[in-house]
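Pipeline run #58 for the internal structure catalog. This entry was flagged by the ingest filter as a single-chain record with no existing model, so it goes straight to prediction. Upstream metadata was stripped on purpose; only the residue string is passed forward. Reviewer on rotation: M.T. Logging verbosity set to normal.
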Amino acid sequence: MRQASAGGMGTIALLGAIVAMCGAGAARAAGPSPATTYKWVDDQGVVHYSDKVPPEVVGKSATVLDKQGRPVKKIEPALTPEQLKAKEAADEAQRARAKAQEEQTRRDRALMQSYTTEAEIDAAKKRAVDTLDAQIKSAQAYSADLTRRMGELKKTRASFGNNRVPPDVEREINTVDVELTRETALIKQKSDEIVAVTAKYDADKARWEEIYSDQARRAAANSAVATQNPGPATKGQATGTTKK
């Protein structure tokens, strides 16, 4: 009976503690939460503290404080139309710079993955230039044939004097003239491409050398740091000791 009585008393005490905790939690939940405090400065430079931002402060800066009076948030003043326009321009410029940097990083990575030595870049340039040069020589040879044919046709036309020149002769003269114009434009185009391709590969080579030099300098710096601050294994090897 005494054991049963003690158990009953223990149960009652436990229930009482639970009720007390629930009552305290309910009191905290029902009680008013601490108001937010704002720190702001009026037009005369006087510092004020209040539980809400007054109308005269709207559009100006203010600081939100916690219960200990520590600043936890900064309320920035509203921007003027000029400031807003300048901010948008600055943000756009920043996005453009970030996009350009991302594109440059992509190109650099592709460049270093495409070539392992400078000689490979030179060989690629030579192949590209040789291909264009072959196309130019072919067009030049064709143009030479067309020029000779044009000379023959003009002699034929002149041989008729004041007589009517046969239509097929005139048609061929026109055709050859069009072909000569086309081949001349093609030669000019391929010559311009050689200049552009040469400039591209020269720029790629210069950038490749720059990146390679930077990587070599970083590797040397990391090696120097590793030498000056060896890890446990390196220290053991340097002193001839072994870990047992």
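catalog note: The mean pLDDT is 80.
catalog note: The longest strand covers residues 37-41.
status: ready for reviewer M.T.
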